[in-house]
Specification:
about 400 residues
């Protein structure tokens, strides 16, 4: 069992270039903040992992594991690694740290997810993000690769089950509403009109195909950190602070699946099946099986990947909140709202909170750990004791899911 001793995230509304800082500066900032919040000393960290997708493309910077030694001389000599899996980079970094702990190599790991994305124009940023698709072989006629890819997913749902745009817009509204009370959300002060959540071409212009502006998650600058510990190290941590080990959040289950890079290959493979993305469903089920739970009714909340509204629409039925093709039911009956049967993205998600690509998976686990600890503040789901995360990279090429709970 791997425990989460604490963590931190940056304010996703920030623009680092305008502040005169960069990835290294914010890496140090979030790491020090996390250490303070978790009441840990730098010398206690035994291994470091970094989740980052496109540091070379946006900033010309690779070898991000070397940032640790730049932040504090204590980290000079610390074993580190950087991990890339598109939007699932942060989750894959967590998996690597967990594996080291479970193998007995180390007892306390630091995982930082980080991405700087607001230092270029929108079209250039979209080009960088397109590196997670099959470059030169798919979506070549699109100006913006990912809005086009997930427009195709909307079309796929339309063809298989039917899809009403009002349901996608309700997903956007819920996430923006949740973000409004999150002090770290990029969109917390944004203002909307009823027309914003409609097919009005002026208030909600088309980006690509069926994808409009309000369907899109927000690229941003952001970082998050979590500290992971073995059961023995967590027990010592708890004892020194006068708390019960059972009260510490833990990662009790995980799922990790990789599908072919090509979007079309995925769709062809699932033709005639219950789920559009069977590997997404598989990762969700793997996490639950390892955690010893059977279904969505044993969860109190979900933090899921809503890079576009249709991505969350897909997640709703793949998570089993509804039967396949019936995600609209959970939207109409309020199941996914903050006070509903299974709140989805109480943080605001990628649409409301923001999506610094390499940081998202780490941020999800940090938020899940805060939820089950009762420390999520204005985003708290009352009585939350078990949260599932769902983080995808590319057109669901990489999928990682975690179950975060306590021993209570």
């Amino acid at each position: 069992m791997v425990y989460v001793l604490g963590g931190a995230q940056t304010d996703f509304a920030r623009n680092w270039a305008r502040e005169g800082t960069d990835m290294l500066g914010v890496f140090g900032e979030v790491l020090r903040d996390g250490l303070d919040q978790a009441q840990l000393d730098p010398a206690e960290i035994e291994t470091g992992h970094v989740g980052n997708f496109a540091g070379e493309l946006f900033c010309g910077q690779g070898q991000l594991g070397g940032f640790f030694g730049m932040v504090d001389p204590v980290f000079d000599g610390l074993p580190t690694a950087r991990h890339e899996a598109a939007c699932a980079s942060g989750s894959v970094a967590i998996l690597a740290a967990m594996a080291e702990i479970e193998a007995g190599r180390y007892d306390l790991a630091c995982v930082v997810g980080i991405e700087q994305m607001r230092n270029t124009g929108g079209r250039e940023a979209a080009g960088h993000l397109g590196a997670a698709a099959w470059v030169g072989r798919e979506f070549e006629d699109a100006d913006f690769v990912w809005p086009r890819a997930f427009s195709d997913l909307s079309e796929e749902y339309q063809n298989r089950h039917g899809l009403e745009y009002e349901h996608l817009m309700r997903i956007a509204q819920i996430n923006f509403d949740n973000a409004r009370v999150n002090p770290d959300a990029q969109t917390r002060d944004w203002q909307f009109t009823p027309e914003s959540f409609s097919a009005d071409d002026e208030a909600n212009p088309v980006v690509e195909g069926r994808t409009r502006k309000m369907d899109c998650g927000q690229i941003t600058d952001g970082a998050a950190v979590v500290f992971l510990a073995s059961e023995e190290r967590a027990a010592d941590y708890a004892k020194k602070r006068g708390i019960a080990l059972e009260d510490l959040p833990r990662i009790s289950g995980w799922g990790h699946r990789t599908a072919p890079l090509s979007y079309d290959a995925k769709i062809k493979a699932s033709a005639g099946g219950a789920y559009v993305f069977p590997q997404v469903r598989g990762a969700i089920e793997d996490a639950r099986r390892r955690a010893g739970i059977e279904g969505v009714d044993q969860l109190d909340a979900v933090e899921t990947h809503d890079c576009f509204t249709v991505t969350e629409y897909m997640a709703i039925d793949h998570l089993g909140i509804t039967a396949p093709g019936e995600s609209w039911k959970a939207i109409e009956d309020g199941s996914i709202e903050k006070g509903g049967r299974i709140p989805v993205n109480p943080s605001g998600g990628l649409i409301g909170l923001g999506h610094p690509v390499g940081a998202t998976g780490v941020r999800m686990v940090h938020d899940a750990a805060r939820q089950v600890s009762g420390k999520a503040g204005s985003c708290q789901v009352e009585g939350a004791g078990r949260v599932q995360t769902l983080n995808i990279g590319g057109s669901t090429t990489t999928t990682v899911s975690f179950i975060v709970d306590t021993g209570r």
